[in-house]
Fold this protein.
Amino acid sequence: MNQLDPLDAAMMTGELVSNPMHAGVVLILSPPEDAGPGYVDELYREALTGNDSIDPRLRRYPHRGVDTGGMWVWRDDGNVDLSKHCQRRTVSSGPDEFWRLIGELDAERLDRSRPMWMSYLIDGLEDGRFAFYIKVHHTVIDGVAGLRMITDALSSDSTCRSMPPFYADRRHESPPPPRSSRARWRSAARRPWCPGHWPRQSARDAEHRPRGRARSPRRGRQRTQGHQGGRESRET
């Protein structure tokens, strides 16, 4: 049996009488300049039909029962149903409704009967923008590693159209090219856009920074914000 370590087991038990123990992050993004009116619809449809292998950390779920002698163990879900982990929401009345929705989603505990992570695609923001709210349980991955997983799904080149989703298994990928090698990035961008891939945003628009805010000189501002355990953290 693949047992949870003592700290993770304590978190699983303690969560029953405390706040949810997951880490969450909000990405507010702008669509590409050439995006049509159905861009977000297409993005969500392709996410559900993608064939990317899932990161092993995002395939496992906890289990405790008579068969394990009361101990917490990890079990692997070999057939993750993305429709249960990648969902869609729409807002229509401005930023207050958006942040209220984020608070509600963050307050919900993750389902322990399946891998403990969720991704919400939220549209209806001002100026055609949309957002992702992603949360992952602390026993699955810590906050720093989770942010690294997300930033690895973003590109420093706005023309790169072939980025894998954050939940993809990257163990067999070759090291990325140097950031200064524009020619190699453009070569990668010529590859077909595979289903389920993340939106193509430049680092100026979607880069996580210590103060939690990224600015774009052309498209106004975008924010990457994190919060955990049912407590929202937002800079203004």
In short: The longest strand covers residues 220-228.
